[in-house]
Structures are given as structure tokens and as C-alpha cells.
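User: My instructor asked us to take a sequence, write out its structure as C-alpha cells, and then describe one feature of it. I'm not sure where to start. Here is the sequence I was given:
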Amino acid sequence: MRVPSERPTQDSIIEDVLPDGYLVRPVRPVGDDGGPDVDAAYAVVWACESRVNGTCESPRGETLEGLTDSEADPAGARLVLAPDGAPVGYLSVITDREARAVFVDAYAVDECGTGVTPTGLLGALVRAGLLRGAQLADDASGQWTVKFVAPDADTEYREAIVHEGLTPIRIFYRMRIGFEHQVLAPPLPEGVTIGVVRTDDERRLVHEVVDTSFADHWDHTPHSVESFISYATRAFGYDPSRWWLLRVDGVPAAVCVGSDEYREIGDGYIKWLGVLRDFRGQGLAKLLLRHSFHSYASNGYSGVRLGVDASSPTGATHLYKSVGMSPIETMHVYNHDVT
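Assistant: Let's start with the prediction itself. The C-alpha cells for your sequence are:
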């Protein structure tokens, strides 16, 4: 057991719970696929999700993106290795500088007393993530929010977060629809068109609709058109053929942005679905959803999933249930403000 340093660092916080022979170090992606360190980080993610859910549905590309994307914080990410070199812990840190937010995910392979993972590692990783958020806030001179999202089924992770003084402030659902039968294209009402976004001007329209339609959603932060397009077009799973813009009598009214980030497990994903306030109540969101379902099903996908705020002010949960989607996972959101 190490002697705690006078001024804690991320490494010293984690080292304080590590027996001799264990190692904590930064994650060092190399090459286009991230190399062995991304393999190691994903092995921890895979083990943790499989322990909680019986399977891992997070693709490796998501871990790679979290370490190499423009919003990744490689200086804050950490790997914990056992004496034999096996990865047993992983800390992911992603920043959204416009929103002044730090997204932290902590993974410890085993907290069940088997001896594979040091006792208290998960809590140490949570504390290290909180410290990294405080460092970023200090560097930027202002208030930042450190965010954790924990599955309801992951009791150990939720307890580790709560032990650090955080309380859940919001619940989100991950929802899915499976395609057991043929999915037909929905008929379009008169005056309504749905087209694939192809030009920079249309991508700017997508940003405008998303930013405006999400303005009354919890925790939404406006983003510049440049950062939105940069993030969206560089994100893992980006597929320009699944950016749909709906117009009513030629006027942009709604958007649906799909992604291929769950292609490895055969599902499509809806990243954003937004309808401008003046066009709500006309069934346009259902129309776009069914249009996306048809598109994915026609290309051999087994289903579509998305995430939704359980307390959405627009009644999104009811909307998704009305088109055949159902919750497959409940997620707890924790926010911690630091200055």
C-alpha cells in the first residue's frame, strides 16, 4: 500500500488502493485502430458490461473514440494493470468545452471479492475522475460539471459514485425496437418531404433544428455550428446517408440523425431526433422514426436503439413506445459541479 501524497494526483489516488505489483498509467493509443492500449481498455469495458448485463453491447470503436476523438482527454484517461499485465481498471475522460462538462466512466473488472481486482479500485477511479474535472475547471477558470452515468443494474458502480457524495439527479432509458417482420416505408402526407442531407448548407440546417428543438430539454447546452458538425461528422459510426431532413411545404421542420455505432451487434442508432416547436403535434417525429426503421431494416439491421430522458418535457418516452420501442436499460445520471 502506498503512502498518500500531500497533494493528491490521479495516479496517487489510484495507487493508494493498489497492492505491490499493480500499475496505473496513462492510456497510449497508437495507429489508426489505437493499438494494444485500446484493446486493453476495451477488455475492461467488455468484462464489466458482461458481468452486469450478461453481454457487452458497447463496440470497441466507442472506446477508441473516447481516447482519440477531438473531445477526448487522453491526459485524464488511465489503465490499471495486474502484475501479470492483465488490464483490471480503466478510466475514461471526455470533455465538452462549450458545455464546460467532463464525462467520466470508471470501470473495474471485478468488485466481487475474487481477488482479481484490488478492493476499492472502482471508488478510486471515481475519485480520480472527479479530480480531473476539478483540474480542468481550475485551468479554465470557471464552473465545470463532472458527469457520471451508471446503469441501474450496476449496483457496485452506483454505490461507488454515491459514496463520493453524488446523488442521482436524472434517469434516462435506452430503448430499442427489433425487426421481427417486414418494415414498410411510411406514406408521406401532402407537402411533406424527407431527404438525405448532402450539402454543408443542409448540415447547418440540421444543427439549427437540433439546437432549437432541444432548447427546452434538461441539461442542453447550445453548440456552435462548427463544433456540432465537426463532432457529428467525426464521431464513431458517422453515416451521412442516415442524416434525414424533413420539410413541410419546403420549410425545414424536423431532423433525424442516425448512426452506425451499433453496427457490430446488428442495430442502428438514432443520435438526434428533433421537431421544431411550430411543427409539433403533427406526427412528424413518428414519421421520421418509421422512415429510419424502414431504412435500417431494408439494409439488414436487426433493430434500432436510442437514448431518452425519462422526464422529457416533449413526451419522448411515450412517443417511442407508441412506435413499438421499449426500454432495455435504465441509466442514472450524476452531476458534480466544480470550480
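For the description part of your assignment, you could build on this observation: Residues 176-330 form a domain with the Aminopeptidase fold (CATH 3.40.630.30). Try explaining in your own words what that tells you about the chain.
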